[in-house]
Design brief:
- The chain is an alpha/beta fold and 279 residues long.
- It has 8 helices and 8 strands; from the N terminus they run αβββαβαβαβαβαβαα.
- Helix 2 links the parallel strand 3 and strand 4.
- The longest helix has 19 residues.
- The termini are far apart.
């Protein structure tokens, strides 16, 4: 790892709790819920911390936060976890997986899968989901679950997902997720260029998408990751998977913050699909 990359990634990792500011305007439901409790879930690397938001009916939504595989700050998606509990009644578990530059692929992918599989062991329905890199992790968890037979997610929620760590990036591509950031993520968390093409690193490049759970794929018109999400949704549908898609017009990567009225509709649509697949 380049020394400057390590410094930049380490700074992002540790300052996330101070630098991440989106989401406060999206607290449409669930703010009256108590603070989440802390627990630890088993993984092949040892136990993984998680934040639990208790629900009122059987089933669990397992969430993987964003942060470019470099930020370790699950509370960035507290607004969403509370919304899901309030809107669906499910318990939400927000996984505090490890991130770069202190670990590299496939540690986060494995920790997220192992945590979700443990939560599914009681036989109640489990939905997995995430935003940005967390959306990529959710897709990777579903691939691992299918390949190993560990559990069967009821639904995957992929919000502005990062699904391709291997393909060339347009160096002039506009948007919040810049080519420079994508390059940093690849060098730090996916340092082995050959591994970037593996399905759990780049779900979009997986040879076979049959047997995966239904999906909600949320994209944003101006987001540089939009093509990843759109192509993945198309490939899932071609594989016979039920897919609900929603693209926020005019929005960049922080798509829910772009238009709060529309965000209410997007979040409600997602909550309805979660409820439908777990009832």
């Amino acid at each position: 790892m380049r020394p400057l990359d390590a410094v930049r990634a380490g700074t992002m990792h540790h300052l996330a709790r101070f630098s991440v500011r989106y989401g406060e305007e999206l607290r449409f439901a669930g703010d009256d819920l108590p603070s989440p409790t802390r627990e630890r879930l088993p993984s092949r690397y040892g136990s993984v911390p998680a934040h639990r938001y208790p629900g009122t009916r059987p089933g669990t939504y397992v969430h993987f936060h964003g942060g470019a595989f470099l930020m370790r700050y699950p509370a960035m998606d507290d607004f969403w976890c509370r919304y899901v509990v309030a809107s669906t009644g499910l318990t939400v578990v927000n996984v505090d997986f490890r991130a770069g530059p202190y670990v590299a692929y496939p540690v986060a992918q494995h920790e997220c899968h192992d945590a979700a599989a443990d939560l599914a062991a009681d036989g109640e329905p489990v939905v997995v989901g995430g935003f940005s890199s967390g959306g990529g992790l959710a897709a990777a968890v579903c691939l691992q679950a299918r390949d190993t037979g560990s559990f069967a997610p009821a639904l995957q929620v992929l919000g502005v997902p990062a699904l391709d760590m291997a393909s060339e990036v347009d160096p002039h591509a506009p948007g919040m997720i810049s080519p420079a950031l994508r390059g940093l993520v690849r060098r730090v968390y996916f340092p082995d260029a050959e591994q970037r093409r593996e399905p759990y690193a780049s779900p979009l490049l997986a040879d076979d998408l049959t047997g995966l759970p239904p999906a909600v794929v949320l994209t944003a018109e101006r987001d540089s990751l939009r093509p990843d999400g759109e192509r993945y949704a198309e490939r899932l549908e071609a594989a016979g998977i039920d897919v609900v898609t929603d693209c926020t017009p005019g929005a960049d990567h922080h798509f829910l913050s772009h238009d709060l009225r529309r965000a209410r509709g997007t979040m409600a649509l997602t909550a309805r699909e979660i409820t439908r697949r777990t009832s």
